Amino acid sequence: MSPLKMLVDFLDVRLGVRDIFAKEVSGYLLPRRVNAWYTLGAVLLTLFGLQIFTGILLLVYYVPHADLAFASVQAIVNDVPFGWLIRMLHAVGANVIVIALLLHMLSVLFMAAYKGRREFTWLSGFVLFNLTMGLCLTGYLLPWSQLSFWATTVATDTPGAIPVVGDFLVEFLRGGATVGNQTLGRFFALHVVGMPLILLGLIGFHLFCVKRRGISTPPFGEDYLADELLPFFEHEEHPAGIPFFPNYVVKDAAVICFFLAFLLAIIFYLPGLFFPPSAFEPADPFVTPPGIKPEWYFLWAYQTLKIFPSEIIGLGVQGAFMTFLALLPFIDRGRERRPAKRPVFVTCYVLGILLFVAISIWGHYS
Amino acid sequence: MIRQTILCCGFLVVLVCGLLVSPAAAQQDETVCIQCHGGLPDALGVPVGEWRQSLHADNGISCHDCHGGDPTDFAMAMSPERGFLGAPDYTAVPEFCGRCHVGVLGDYQESAHGQALQAGGAQCVMCHGNHAVQKASLDLINPESCARCHDYERADKIKGILADTDGKIIAMEEELARLGKLGMAVEAFEGQLFDLRNRFHRAFHTVKEARVREQTGEVLAGLETLRAGVDEIDAGLGQRKLWGGVAIALLVLAGILFLQMRKTYEEDEKG
Fold first, then answer.
1. In whole angstroms, what is the distance from residue A61 CA to residue A56 CA?
2. What's residue B29's pLDDT?
3. Does the pLDDT at position B21 exceed 70?
4. B182: containing domain
5. Alpha carbons B140 and B151: distance in angstroms, whole number
6. With 90 as the cut, is the pLDDT of residue A26 above it?
7. Which CATH class is domain A34-219+240-286?
């Protein structure tokens, strides 16, 4: 008898793992028309797992102090065996997560998968997206480079535009009047403990919502039927569907492999893509580097603030847009999900993407 | 009621998230010298614009670092009590600049230029300029500049000796900048190059051909050592790319295999 079978037998007689596997994995049926876009959830889980793994390894050598942080990162990259790879997987991985998150959200929007009483799934996903942005922002400061320092100075300066409480908010975020060791301390705590704990809880809740309500059927094909909204809870079953394991897991695995290949391609062949020269200079509070810009995924917000005559109007517009997006399932109440039958939505969707890209490019070159 | 509460809570959460992630334009703090002189006309304001384009500005060397005074106090900014020195006389310029450029000062004072200072001989700003000072390069040695005082022939000879080494120093600077952009620890190399470049630039200030030849030889030997270090780093980076390529190819291959497996399942599903 193989050691694996012995282990499974051992667990099965105590926990009934074969029964769980049969019900929740191999017996879990997905809609027959489920497409490649549905793999992005598994891709994101893998990438978040990679972030946690590499983050723990980085914690072994990273020193969260303004006098030592930059040198510790330099030591990780140059002295620790494979430290450069761990650091790059973590830093570039964060950018790839944002790409995967955007694709995931865009696919959900296009297929209107937030419909059919899936408001909690959408909302938890939306908060997860914002939390990831927060993790990116707090992580950005930790290397304590010129880029980190000044990007954080600019980002934490923004709430100062809010009347009455603005100055208090800025000081609350920074832990003082300016970005300094106290800012690094609180960003570090948020980045490695606070936010990841909330993130893990939210991922669990998001997966629970997906599983409990049931995977939404792709709104394509002649046999597509709109969800029937009953006045009580109903789990959406797919009795004629395909087994999650192994039938769909192999597709998950394929897309995960392609994403990891994409991540490694950037690390090995375009290592400077997300790192301007100021990312490799130690932070100097007395010298502002020219042309400091936020990360590509914040460029739209950065440029929006510059378009309007006052920052508070820009902030209001951003807040209104994000609120609209968060509450979309509560606003868009129609049952129709097929893109071909929703021309107004699809037009807004395409224009929205183009606007996002255009404003980001404008922000990059402004 | 529940919907309104959800809407309000959602708005607040999203607004806070939006605020947290929204950057704004940076404002650079400026000294009172720049704030005041920047708005003045003619000779009192021109130096600010020139300085902004200078090597000193790039390296955070501001007005008060040379002219003294208090850069934080409008009223006392130009007070001798706060160490304000003002602009130096023509013959005091070498000592003025030499407070920081100590080595060059020594070589200059021993040179024919330094010896002729009191008689109107060349000093620092004649060749380097003052507020718009740029990174020293061989272009500073040219017929127009040198012929203002003497024949260009000797200067041209020295420039010829320096040219090859100067090119190698510039090439090494670019190499180290390239590696620095990849996160390589090149600070030690940059320190060595800084030292070599300074020794090299100092050599010219003696305006003595033999001394320049001797110093250039030492600098070239130092550059060879640096070249060996850079080559070693490049070899390591080349190996990384090789193994990275293998890892990427394996992942793509695995992805294709998984897709092929999916196809076989699709055939089963149709059946």
1. 10
2. 52
3. no
4. 151-233
5. 15
6. yes
7. mainly alpha
Residue A50 CB partners (closer than 8 Å, separation 6+):
A89, A93
SS3 category, A160: helix
- Our CA angle for B96, B99, B101, nearest 5°, is 105
ipTM score: 0.93
- Cβ neighbours of B203 (radius 10 Å): 23
**Measured between alpha carbons, how far is residue B132 from residues A26, A206, B51, B57, B71 in Å?**
74, 60, 5, 9, 20
Residue B102 clears pLDDT 90, i.e. is over it: no
Task: Report whether pLDDT(B28) > 80.
Answer: no
Instruction: Look at residue B140 and tell me if it is in a domain.
Output: no
Beta strands in chain A (DSSP E): 29-30, 242-243
Q: Choose among A204, A120, A198, A333: nearest CA to B6.
A: A120
Distance CA B244, CA B240 (A): 6
pLDDT > 90? residue B208: no
The Cα A103–Cα A35 span in angstroms is 14
Cβ–Cβ gap A330/B6 under 8 Å: yes
Residue A168, CA atoms < 13 Å, CB-side half-sphere: 3
pTM of the model: 0.81
Instruction: Answer yes or no: are the C-beta atoms of B183 and A280 closer than 8 Å.
Output: yes
3-state secondary structure of A359: helix
On whether both B107 and B165 belong to a single domain, the answer is no
Q: Residue ranges of the domains in chain A?
A: 34-219+240-286
Please check whether residues B62 and B102 belong to one and the same domain: no
Residue B225 in domain: yes
If contacts are CB pairs under 8 Å, which of residues 111-130 in chain A contact chain B? 123, 127, 130
Whether residues B79 and B101 share a domain: the answer is no
Q: Establish if B121 belongs to a structural domain.
A: yes
Total of domains in chain B: 3
Name the residue in chain B with its Cα closest to that of A129: B17
Average pLDDT estimate for A234-238: 89
Q: What is the pLDDT of residue B26?
A: 33
Contacts of A169 in chain B (CB under 8 A): 19
How far is the C-alpha of A309 from the C-alpha of B66, rounded, in Å?
Answer: 40
What is the Cα–Cα distance from B112 to B106, expressed in whole angstroms? Answer: 12
User: Does the distance separating the beta carbons of A258 and B269 come in below 8 Å?
Assistant: no
A145: helix, coil or strand?
strand
pLDDT in tens, A173-229: 999 999 999 999 999 999 999 999 999 999 999 999 999 999 999 999 888 888 778
CB neighbourhood size of A148 (10 A): 24
| Contact between chains at B15 and A330 (C-beta distance less than 8 A) | no
Write out residues 25-44 of A within 8 Å (CB-CB) of B: 32
φ, ψ of residue A88 to 5 degrees: the values are -65, -40
Same-domain check for residues B102 and B36: no
* B263 lies in some domain: no
